[in-house]
Amino acid sequence: MYELVQVAAxxxxxxxxxxxxxxxxxxxxxxxxxxxxxxxxxxxxxxxxAEKGWSLAAILNTHSNADHIGxxxxxxxxxxxxxxxxxxxxxxxxxxLLESSLLYGGYPCRELxxxxxxxxxxxxxxxxxxxxxxxxxxIPLPGHFLDMVGYRTPDDVVFxxxxxxxxxxxxxxxxxxxxxxxxxxxxLEMVSGMQAALFVPSHAEATADIAPLAAxxxxxxxxxxDVVLGLCQTPATFDDVLQGVFTHYALTMTIEQYVLVGSxxxxxxxxxxxxxxxxxxxxNARMYWQTIPA
Length: 294
Known about the structure:
Distance between the termini: 50 Å
CATH topology of the largest domain: Metallo-beta-lactamase, Chain A
Number of strands: 13
Number of helices: 10
CATH architecture of the largest domain: 4-Layer Sandwich
Strand order of the largest sheet: 1-2-3-4-5-6-7
Shape: globular
């Protein structure tokens, strides 16, 4: 873990729990794509860069989930490097309490205020800032999170962030975490048709042919939508649906899984409602979801 892997003339990634991209435009400076999950990851990154004789020029975040921005603050404090992030993700990097609050749906209790869901704040600037390095081309990848992007390097290597889960992860958990099901489906369709010398997903193996994994992610998402629809055949509260999802996929309930899977289930229900496939009603101060007959 945390070994540097060269995949093109000037493009590398650091093999870590969430892969960290490295592009060196001149053999002396390094641009990072994401920063790992905490300051320990940041220390390991700096050690790798020092061994190569590279100075850290900038960090470009793909999105603001804690496992992708957790090293931001340490690296910025140690090197003074600027940090850039897309859209509202920059605000989440500056105010990371927003992530755990969004997932929970209110102020998060202490058990949700830890490094896996709450990174330390960092002074992220928008990608539109004139100082943002032009060498890396952003690729919008909405769906998994708010304004997530990937990046294409001049070596034609595409870093795909979290828009794809590995087949092993999908088989283990069944339902992938996502924020917007409709945007995610559109992203999967777009990615399946992309061409590049190499694709590097954050949580799956690098590959030159991304279409099969994109198709598998789409298949698993559609199956999870069918599971939710099945659970709403009779009127069901959100907690009924969530319990059914955990039971169907044999998941273990923890506070972290409650907010991650729960947020995803709410997003699936919202998309199904907008598509006219479920509706909600209220009875005795409870909200019920029910499938609309075809």
